[in-house]
Amino acid sequence: TEKVQAFAVFDCDGTLVDTHASIVHCMTAAFDALGLAPPVPAAVRATIGLPLNDCVRILSPEHDERVWARIVTAYREVFFDTRRFDTVDEPLFPGIMTLLDALESRGVVLGVATGKIERALILTLERHGLLSRFATLQTADKAPANPDPAMLVRAMAEVGAAPERTVMIGDSTYDILMGRNAGTATVGVVWGQNNADELAAAGAEFLARSAGEILERFPARGR
């Protein structure tokens, strides 16, 4: 069987979907629900891309495991409630749908590797009609999260792609480090978590300032 010729693995939050305002809302509500002073929005945004448990530890270092577990539970309740009642505002970033269409037309296999848990990722992708577009979904509840390479290694194994034919695309330095740790190419997108300088310092080989620029890393066949 022919090996996968090109494999594009996307982070979700801050790369495909603009979830930052929604995440800040959920985290603030979770702290409020427990009568705790919520972290400032900038601090919450700085943790996006990490698994929820790690975010909560960073944002409330003065608390213990028991309190952290309650914050995580409260966050998830708010997260799923906003989706149940469709009060969430998480648009795709401009040009993402066109980019996915163009990649598929070039024979590129698509995957996701994210700090989200699987249930949350599926809800997010379903909301935009994207679930069927991705051949593999790697989430923080199935493997160690970035920058550990485990998710990306599993994604490549599932679709049959070699590291030299794989590109990790993300908005945070954690995504770039995961790609480097897994031996893949890396693309940093500048519309999410970290800026161009930070992504480059983490080792991003290519910086995309728009979704369309990502396509430059995937030449049409025959070129």
In helices, the fraction of residues equals 40-55%
The biggest sheet amounts to:
6 strands, parallel
Radius of gyration: 17 Å
> What distance separates the N and C termini?
23 Å
**Taking all residues together, what is the mean pLDDT?**
93
The topology string of helices and strands comes to EHHHHHEHEHEHEHEH
The tally of helices reads 10
Derived structural class: alpha/beta
Question: What is the β-strand count?
Answer: 6
With strands numbered from the N-terminus, the spatial order across the biggest sheet is 3-2-1-4-5-6
pLDDT under 50 segments (min length 5)? none
Strand fraction band? 5-15%
Task: Please state the overall shape, judged from the principal axes of the Cα atoms.
Answer: globular
Q: Can you walk through the features of this model?
A:
The structure is a single chain. The protein is an alpha/beta fold and 223 residues long. It is built from ten helices and six strands. The chain has helices spanning 20-33, 41-47, 52-59, 65-84, 96-105, 118-127, 150-159, 173-182, 196-202, 211-214; strands at residues 7-10, 109-113, 136-138, 166-170, 185-189, 206-208. Strands 3-2-1-4-5-6 form a six-stranded parallel sheet. Strand 2 (109-113), helix 6 and strand 3 (136-138) form a beta-alpha-beta unit.
